[in-house]
C-alpha cells in the first residue's frame, strides 16, 4: 500500500492541471458559478458526495460547496478549507492558461487552494476506511469580500455532523525559505482587520474667502496627521499594528471650499486590547480635531475580521504532520505575524484551528511577486505539498 507521501506525490500532475483550469475561470465575490460547477464535476468523478450552499446574501446566491468524506465514525470531524474566489485584477502574465475573464485574475492564488483541496479529496477518499472520524472539505467562495466563511457557517456546515477542528493553508511568496515550506506560527498568525469611515462636516464658501466658511479639507489634513500619532506615540513600539487612511474625497472645483470631506481607512492589530484602544482613540481624535477646527467629525466603524489565532495543539499537530509527510526542512515556525487577514478566522472562533502559509517562491524571480499583484505566479512543482499538508493533518487528527 502506498504511503500518504506517495499518494500525495501521485496527484502532483492532477493538482497542477486543476490549478491551470481554474486559473482560466476566475470569479469574484460569493457567487462563483463556473468554479462551483468545476468543483462539483471533479467530486462527481471521484464519487465524493457534496452539498452546495443554499444561503442567499443580499439577493446573491453563495456558491460554496462542502464535500464529505465519511470515515469510521463522525465523533471527530475536521474541516479542511480552500477559498476559491478571485480578484478584480487585470492579469499581466503571459501564460497559456491565462485568465479568460478579462479584468479578473486568481491573483491571490485561490486557484491553487482549490486544486490542492481537490487533490486531498482524491487521496482522502481512497483512505477513508482508515480514518477514525470524518472530513469535510470546504470549497469557500467570497474570501476576498470576507463574506464567504460566514455564508458556510450560516448554511449549517459547521454542524451535522459537528465540525470539531479546522485547518487551512494560503500560498504565500516567501523567497527566503525553501519552496514548498509550510510556515506555521503559534498564536496570532494574521492580524485583525477593521474598516472605518470618517465624515467631516464643515461649511462651504468661495475659495477666495475661507474665513466665511469652515474648511473641511484643512481639517481632514490635520485629522490624518493626528491619527498617525496614535500609532507612533500611544502604542508600544514592539507591538505589530497598522493604521492606514486609504481614501480621501472632498471638493468639486478649484475655487470652491467644499462643505464636507470623507475618508476611509483600516486598522490591523494582533491584540484585542489594542484593537479596542484604536477604536476609542480614533473616535476621540476625529471628534476633537474637528471641533477645534470648527467642523463636525463622525466615525462609523465596520467590525472587520477577528485575528487568525492558531491553536497551540493544532499547530503541534500540523507541524508534526508536515515533518512526517515532507520532512523537517519544510517547516518554518519562527515567523512574524502577517498584517493581512483571513475570514478563516470565523471558523477558528468556533473550533480549534490552524492556518499555514505555503511558500510558493523558488529561485525564479517570477515567483517572488506578492499576492494581489497582476504578475503573481507560483512554483507549481510544490503544490502537492499543500495537498500533503491537508491529508496528513487530517489523518493525524483522526487517529
Ligand atoms: Zn487575497
Ligand atoms: Zn487569499
Q: Strand pairing plus helix content: what structural class?
A: alpha+beta
Helicity, in percent?
25-40%
Average pLDDT works out at 97
Largest sheet: 8 strands, mixed
CATH topology of the largest domain: Aminopeptidase
Model description:
With 399 residues, the chain is of the alpha+beta class. The protein has 2 domains: 4-188 and 307-397, Zn peptidases (Aminopeptidase); 192-305, Alpha-Beta Plaits (2-Layer Sandwich). Helix content is 32%, strand content 24%. The strands form 5 sheets. Strands 1-4-6-5-7-18-8-17 form an 8-stranded mixed beta sheet, with helices on both faces. It has a 4-stranded antiparallel beta sheet with strand order 12-14-10-15, covered by helices on one side. The longest helix has 21 residues, at 272-292. The chain starts with a helix and ends with a helix. 48% of the residues are buried. The structure holds zinc ion (2 copies).
Summarize the structure.
This protein has 10 helices and 18 strands. It has 399 residues and is an alpha+beta fold.
Amino acid at each position: 500500500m502506498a504511503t500518504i507521501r506517495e499518494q500525495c506525490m501521485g496527484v502532483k500532475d492532477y493538482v497542477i492541471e486543476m490549478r491551470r483550469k481554474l486559473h482560466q475561470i476566475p470569479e469574484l465575490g460569493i457567487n462563483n458559478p463556473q468554479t462551483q460547477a468545476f468543483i462539483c464535476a471533479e467530486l462527481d468523478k471521484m464519487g465524493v458526495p457534496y452539498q452546495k450552499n443554499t444561503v442567499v446574501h443580499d439577493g446573491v446566491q453563495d456558491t460554496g460547496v462542502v464535500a464529505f468524506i465519511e470515515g469510521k465514525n463522525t465523533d471527530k470531524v475536521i474541516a479542511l478549507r480552500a477559498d476559491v474566489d478571485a480578484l478584480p485584477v487585470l492579469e499581466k502574465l503571459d501564460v497559456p492558461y491565462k485568465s479568460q475573464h478579462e479584468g479578473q485574475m486568481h491573483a491571490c492564488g485561490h486557484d491553487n487552494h482549490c486544486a490542492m483541496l481537490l487533490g486531498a479529496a482524491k487521496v482522502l477518499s481512497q483512505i477513508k476506511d482508515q480514518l477514525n472520524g470524518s472530513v469535510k472539505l470546504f470549497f469557500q467562495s467570497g474570501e476576498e469580500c470576507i463574506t464567504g466563511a460566514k455564508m458556510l457557517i450560516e448554511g449549517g456546515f459547521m454542524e451535522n455532523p459537528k465540525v470539531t477542528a479546522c485547518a487551512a493553508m494560503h500560498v504565500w511568496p516567501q523567497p527566503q525559505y525553501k519552496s514548498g515550506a509550510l510556515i506555521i506560527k503559534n498564536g496570532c498568525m494574521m492580524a485583525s482587520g477593521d474598516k472605518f469611515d470618517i465624515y467631516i462636516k464643515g461649511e462651504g464658501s468661495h475659495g477666495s474667502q475661507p474665513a466665511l466658511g469652515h474648511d473641511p479639507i484643512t481639517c481632514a489634513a490635520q485629522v490624518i496627521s493626528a491619527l498617525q500619532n496614535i500609532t507612533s506615540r500611544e502604542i508600544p513600539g514592539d507591538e505589530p499594528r497598522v493604521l492606514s487612511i486609504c481614501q480621501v474625497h472632498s471638493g468639486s472645483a478649484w475655487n470652491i471650499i467644499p462643505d464636507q470631506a470623507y475618508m476611509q481607512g483600516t486598522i490591523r492589530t494582533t491584540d484585542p486590547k489594542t484593537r479596542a484602544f484604536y477604536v476609542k482613540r480614533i473616535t476621540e481624535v476625529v471628534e476633537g480635531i474637528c471641533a477645534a477646527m470648527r467642523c463636525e467629525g463622525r466615525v462609523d466603524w465596520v467590525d472587520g475580521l477577528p485575528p487568525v489565532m492558531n491553536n497551540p495543539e493544532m499547530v503541534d499537530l500540523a507541524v508534526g504532520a508536515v515533518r512526517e509527510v515532507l520532512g523537517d526542512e519544510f517547516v518554518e515556525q519562527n515567523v512574524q505575524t502577517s498584517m493581512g487577514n483571513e475570514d478563516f478566522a470565523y471558523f477558528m472562533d468556533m473550533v480549534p484551528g490552524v492556518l499555514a502559509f505555503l511558500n510558493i517562491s523558488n529561485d525564479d524571480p517570477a515567483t517572488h511577486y506578492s499576492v494581489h499583484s497582476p504578475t503573481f505566479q507560483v512554483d507549481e512543482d510544490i503544490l502537492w505539498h499543500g495537498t500533503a499538508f491537508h491529508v496528513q493533518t487530517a489523518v493525524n487528527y483522526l487517529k
